[in-house]
């Protein structure tokens, strides 16, 4: 007799768990029991479904590394009891959480699917029902007794994406997420079609949970006319260990002497400068143009095609390992969880 898949649903909050107050019209959080009443289909699955709900639902704008650590600990504690995990999460910072969890869960061999909605479950036209139902189906899906998906993903509006490749690009439509530099892992229609070539390769190694993160990082986003005063203030922020440098195009920046000097001074102090592009699609290729060759020469680290969300969380993860400066830079440039293209 076929053994049922077991999926743990972790409810953190977000729009999917909001109800509209009949009098005021305001959106207010409600508990998981109310959620299951709104979606009776949850009881019809050929999947053993369990649930854990945060005592206080969290708006995704309040998401932070401590909550990521809590999620990792929940997954670690329940890892051998379940075949997959679905995390209900607010969409605004979902890509940050998905990226962070991908780095924190090393040797993950089961699906962790984050999903949510643009409209609350209590709204008639909500997208939350389909998102949740399909996310659970994907989390429980097996082939020859093994999970089909074995990584941290985001499922939204009929598409399953690698979590650390996504960003939220739309707040007005149901297809809120994009993954321009990596194909979808699956598409849901009448059937769910999996892109087998896009999936991470399975591992037989034991899960390792990382719970040390370092958020002493900041961001310097370039724009025409950025001043030396502002640039210097950001690069000299007390206590920073790394700066994400958001450059133009394929990693290009001003060649003004003052700008290069400010970066050189920061690098000389041991601050890591990680170069990512402001473009939604494409990659940093330092040295492709004269306007990026000087960055490579002074020791700016190429972020290749990292998303901003992945750059932020990967820096927190790598800095948290407390490695030497050179090993930290090497790890940043290594493809750890499919976040970088080869």
Task: Tell me the major beta sheet.
Answer: 8 strands, mixed
> Helical proportion?
25-40%
Strand/helix succession: EEEHEHEHEEHEEEEEEEEEEHEHEHEHH
Order of strands in the sheet with the most strands? 4-1-5-7-10-11-14-15
Q: Please identify the structural class as seen in this structure.
A: alpha/beta
Relative strand content: 15-25%
Poorly predicted ranges: none
The appropriate CATH architecture of the largest domain is: 3-Layer(aba) Sandwich
Described by the principal axes of the CA atoms, the overall outline is globular
CATH-defined superfamily of the largest domain: L-asparaginase, N-terminal domain
Radius of gyration equals: 21 Å
Architecture overview:
- The protein is α/β, with parallel strands linked by helices.
- The protein folds into 2 domains: 5-209, 3-Layer(aba) Sandwich (Rossmann fold); 217-332, Rossmann fold (3-Layer(aba) Sandwich).
- It has helices spanning 32-38, 65-78, 94-104, 128-140, 228-235, 257-268, 290-298, 308-320, 325-332, and strands at 5-11, 18-20, 27-29, 47-53, 84-88, 105-106, 112-115, 142-143, 146-147, 152-156, 159-162, 167-168, 177-178, 186-188, 192-194, 208-209, 217-221, 242-247, 272-277, 301-302.
- Strands 4-1-5-7-10-11-14-15 form an 8-stranded mixed beta sheet, with helices on both faces.
- α2 (65-78) packs across α3 and α5 (228-235) runs parallel beside α6 (257-268).
């Amino acid at each position: 007799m076929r053994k049922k898949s077991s999926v743990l649903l972790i409810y953190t909050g977000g729009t999917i768990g909001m109800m509209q107050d009949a009098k005021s019209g305001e959106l207010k959080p409600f508990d998981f029991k109310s959620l299951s009443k709104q979606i009776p289909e949850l009881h019809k699955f050929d999947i053993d479904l369990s649930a854990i709900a945060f005592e206080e639902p969290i708006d995704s704008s309040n998401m932070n590394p401590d909550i990521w650590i809590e999620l990792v600990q929940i997954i670690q504690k329940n890892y051998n009891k379940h075949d997959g995990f679905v995390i209900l999460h607010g969409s605004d910072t979902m890509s940050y959480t998905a990226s962070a969890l991908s780095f924190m869960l090393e040797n993950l061999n089961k699906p962790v699917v984050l999903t949510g909605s643009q409209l609350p479950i209590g709204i008639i036209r909500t997208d939350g029902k389909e998102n949740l139902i399909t996310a659970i189906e994907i989390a429980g899906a097996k082939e020859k007794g093994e999970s089909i998906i074995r990584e941290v993903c985001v499922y939204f509006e009929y598409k399953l994406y690698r979590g650390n490749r996504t960003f939220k690009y739309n707040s007005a439509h149901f297809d809120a997420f994009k993954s321009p530099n990596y194909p979808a892992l699956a598409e849901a229609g009448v059937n769910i079609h999996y892109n087998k070539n896009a999936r991470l390769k399975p591992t037989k190694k034991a899960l390792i949970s990382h719970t040390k993160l370092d958020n002493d990082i900041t961001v310097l986003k370039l724009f025409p006319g950025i001043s030396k005063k502002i640039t210097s203030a950001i690069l000299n922020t007390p206590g920073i260990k790394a700066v994400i440098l958001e450059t133009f195009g394929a990693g290009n920046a001003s060649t003004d002497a003052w700008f290069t000097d400010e970066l050189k001074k920061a690098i000389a102090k041991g601050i890591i400068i990680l170069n990512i592009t402001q473009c939604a699609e494409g990659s940093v290729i330092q040295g492709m143009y004269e306007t990026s060759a000087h960055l490579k020469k002074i020791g700016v680290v190429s972020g290749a095609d990292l998303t901003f969300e992945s750059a932020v969380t990967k820096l927190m993860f790598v800095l948290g390992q407390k490695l030497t400066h050179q090993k930290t830079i090497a790890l940043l440039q290594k493809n750890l969880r499919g976040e970088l293209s080869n």
